[in-house]
Design goal:
With 565 residues, this protein is an alpha+beta fold. It has 16 helices and 18 strands. A hairpin with a 6-residue loop joins strand 8 and strand 9. Helix 8 packs antiparallel against helix 9, helix 9 packs antiparallel against helix 10 and helix 11 packs antiparallel against helix 12.
Length: 565
């Protein structure tokens, strides 16, 4: 009696034949494809024929939580957790669409693999804060995946129908491998390649793309260094390769106006070579950019002491330091004059609220560009706006010195009409809150009835939120709500002509783009504005106020720089 043939683990049915010959699938081949997963509703008579008898539980064309939201990329030979996927794809042509009925015994890893892909989609679409962990241990499995359809498969495994659409096939020599795909020898070689690519971009003044090349090279180098024992010759040989990469990063950040990043990159070099000439010079330049003039002078003095040939270049920067110090001294005198003018004849109380102007910069979630200012002289009342993808944060008005709050939500129609070069943003929908009825003052706080007022669309020529780059107003304080915006503000002042030498304090308070943090952030901005408004001497007191504010909010990225008009 002959031995029975083993039952096939999957059954294929071609829905669209595709084109050409079946590609060669070897280690390193990349397949790009979409897939949909169907779970049968009733298995009494085997796998049903009609699609109506299935429930779709995953589709890569759909976003979170129903799928990955992008085509899958599978590298053959890299031990993908669902090994059956490689088996299925090996039978397909490009553009082919086929369905595969796969036995449950081949799909034990499917629920956990699908969970990881969905979590990645969630992280990509909503930022890094998400509730689903990508690590699964036994205890986590007992609690479930967080996705009901996958939990059901964990409890009761079932055969599934996969519909694959093969989009592209790339051979190893036809695409640039990512770092995780490379062996140590290839990874080390790629570090030098990335460095050269970054250098070419730098010469073309494409600083941001060059930064990405250098950062990727550093990441790959770190992976190689972790394989060696610190202090060994092999470790030293790899670690020294960090120096030119960090030097290149520092100069690129300097050109972009990212002074703090430039300082950090220079410090990485100095931690390995304490008298490196280029690192000391670039750090000094960046410190001047952040107005840390004393530290900049120290860096230049170290440079000249170790490398006398740099004396001429150092003298140029020392003159710039002196010029800026003179500017600060002159501005302080002007502030004192304004203080005297602002004093009342009776009690000689200085009204700094009459002098300060605040600009709050917000982020347009779609275009991610700097918008503002939405300014208002701070006279016991503050107009604050923070817009995110969840709408604007509205302050609890009865608890603050606020007599008018505007909530803007930009319509999709308006977003299409407003280009990157628009001088003004025009909002089609707004809700204005204004104080109605009798008003009582108690301990400096206004009390009354707050009522929404639906506003009409603002005419094009009416003043509204402007791009800071085209605003002609001058402010004492500019508050950015994201470090990238803060950097753009610094870059704006760095590039503009400083003719009046009137200084402006630029503050960054990082606020995440979600409803909860937008609301909390609105309170924080209100709080620091109130504290600054009570300063008798803004120039003398602002560092103390910011330091106290930072101590109370250690989780926030708070930065402060002085620039000039």
């Amino acid at each position: 009696m002959s031995k029975a043939e083993p039952r096939p683990k999957s059954v294929k049915k071609t829905l669209n034949a595709g084109r050409g010959q079946v590609p060669e699938y070897k280690d390193g081949t990349k397949a790009v494809f979409h897939y949909e997963v169907l779970r049968p509703l009733d298995l009494t008579n085997g796998m049903p024929e009609s699609r109506d008898d299935y429930e779709s539980i995953e589709d890569t064309r759909k976003g979170y939580p129903h799928g990955y939201g992008l085509p899958m990329e599978l590298i053959f030979g890299k031990k993908f957790q669902l090994a059956i996927f490689e088996t299925l794809l090996r039978s397909m042509n490009v553009d082919e669409i086929s369905q595969f009925d796969v036995e449950a015994s081949e799909l034990f890893q499917y629920p956990l693999t699908s969970k990881k892909l969905r979590d990645l989609a969630h992280s990509r679409e909503h930022g890094h804060g998400h509730s689903h962990s990508t690590h699964m241990c036994a205890a986590t499995m007992a609690e479930g995946t967080g996705y009901p359809c996958l939990d059901e498969l964990l409890k009761k495994p079932s055969p599934l129908r996969f519909i694959f659409h093969l989009l592209q096939v790339h051979q190893p020599e036809d695409y640039e491998a990512e770092g995780w795909q490379l062996n140590p020898e290839a990874k080390l070689k790629s570090v030098e390649t990335l460095k050269q690519q970054g250098n070419e971009l730098y010469l073309k003044k494409k600083y941001r793309p060059a930064i990405e090349k250098y950062k990727e090279a550093l990441t790959r180098l770190d992976h190689l260094i972790l394989r060696e024992k610190p202090g060994d010759p092999e470790w030293e040989e790899l670690d020294v390769k960090n120096v030119p990469l960090y030097l290149n990063l520092s100069i690129c950040y300097l050109h972009c106006g990212d002074f703090y990043e430039s300082i950090g990159a220079a410090d990485e070099v100095l931690s390995r070579d304490a008298t490196n000439d280029k690192a000391l010079y670039r750090k000094a330049k960046a410190l001047i950019g952040t107005w840390e003039l004393g530290k900049a002078r120290e860096s230049l003095e170290k440079l000249v002491a170790a490398h006398p040939e740099w004396a001429k270049l150092a003298d140029v920067e020392l003159q710039e330091i002196k010029r800026r110090q003179d500017q600060v001294a002159a501005d302080k005198k002007n502030i004192c004059k304004n203080m005297i003018k602002g004093m009342e004849d009776g009690d000689r109380q200085f009204k700094i609220n009459d002098l300060l102007k605040f600009a709050k910069l917000r982020i347009n979630a779609t275009r991610r560009q700097v918008h503002g200012p939405y300014q208002n002289p701070l006279r016991r009342h503050l107009l604050l706006e923070y817009e995110s993808q969840h709408g604007s944060a509205r302050l609890f008005k009865e608890k603050r010195h606020i007599n008018r709050v505007v909530w803007h939500r930009q319509s999709s129609e308006t977003a299409r009409q407003v280009g990157d070069d628009a001088q003004l943003l025009r909002f089609r929908h707004a809700v204005r809150f204004h104080l109605q009825g009798p008003v009582e003052k108690g301990q400096g706080i206004l009390h009354g009835k707050w009522a929404p007022e639906h506003a009409r669309s603002e005419p094009a020529d009416q003043r509204g939120p402007q791009k800071l780059q085209v605003c002609t107003d001058e402010f004492n304080v500019i508050i950015a709500l994201e470090e990238r915006v803060y950097d753009q503000v610094l870059d704006h002042f760095f590039s503009k002509k400083q003719d009046r030498m009137v200084h402006v304090h630029i503050i960054n308070i990082d606020i995440e783009d979600n409803h909860e943090d937008a609301t909390n952030g609105a309170w924080l901005v209100t709080d620091i504005c109130e504290k600054l408004s009570k300063c008798r001497d803004l120039t003398a007191d602002i560092e103390r106020v910011i330091e106290e504010f930072a101590d109370k909010n250690p989780e926030r990225n708070i930065m402060h720089t002085i620039k000039f008009y």
